[in-house]
Design goal:
The chain is built from six helices and six strands. It has 188 residues and is of the alpha/beta class. Bound molecules: flavin mononucleotide (FMN). Flavin mononucleotide binds next to helix 1, strand 3 and strand 5. The site of flavin mononucleotide has 19 residues, from helix 1, strand 3 and strand 5.
């Protein structure tokens, strides 16, 4: 079965990002695909140390568990990344994870190539579009395919659960998730 991995970039296990990610996964499952959510909550993700050992080892050698996500990604058809906005940009751990994943892909067999997915940004008030653009740099340099929706993949909310008040934001994410699933089906 086709599978989409979804990275949940918030440190809050039941926060807004986690709730949007759950909805995203539900829509993709409804389209007949498997989903796997990888939460960063409880994890401490190190930055790439430019050791380049991934070239020899085939995976990241830093011991914080990200190698496990990379193994799962190799088997997946899609990859969605959801991040809370912190000071107008993606949370640091999210970018640290993406930079390491991208480096391992480039240093090995380019396993990210042609995976379908894209970024989602969650914030109280501002910085969504810059955050989406920041994360898109990862998708586009790795030959990934990003479908659109009827707006950019952004949802408003501060306290956990507030995202459900942003009806247009949730609708945008649902359609994006559906388009990811439909595109994967078309490509196979
Ligand atoms: C360190 C920090 C920085 C933040 N910076 C922004 C920001 O620049 N713009 C914004 O609208 N919200 C900002 N927020 C609010 C969060 O993006 C918002 O509460 C979001 O819903 C958090 O997602 P979560 O519940 O998944 O953790 C910030 C929150 C924190 C903790």
């Amino acid at each position: 079965m086709k599978k989409v991995v979804i990275l949940c970039g918030s440190p809050r296990p039941k926060g807004n990002t986690a709730q949007v990610v759950e909805e995203c996964a539900r829509v993709i499952r409804d389209q007949g695909l498997e989903t796997e959510i990888y939460p960063l909550a409880g994890k401490k993700i190190e930055s790439c140390t430019a050791c380049y050992r991934c070239r020899e080892e085939g995976n990241c050698v830093l011991e914080d568990g990200l190698d496990d996500l990379i193994d799962r990604l190799r088997e997946a058809d899609g990859f969605i990344v959801a991040s809370p906005v912190y000071f107008g940009t993606a949370r640091g751990d999210v970018m640290a994870a993406l930079q390491r994943i991208g480096m391992v892909s480039m240093a090995t067999d380019g396993f990210l190539s042609w995976k379908v997915g894209g970024p989602i940004a969650i914030a109280r008030r501002g910085g969504h579009t810059a955050t989406i653009q920041e994360m898109l740099m990862f998708f586009f340099i790795n030959e990934m395919i990003v479908p659109g929706s009827t707006y950019w993949n952004m949802v408003f909310g501060r306290d956990p659960g507030e995202v459900w008040n942003d009806e247009e934001g949730i609708r945008t994410i649902r359609l994006f998730a559906e388009n990811v699933a439909r595109l994967i089906a078309r490509l196979s």
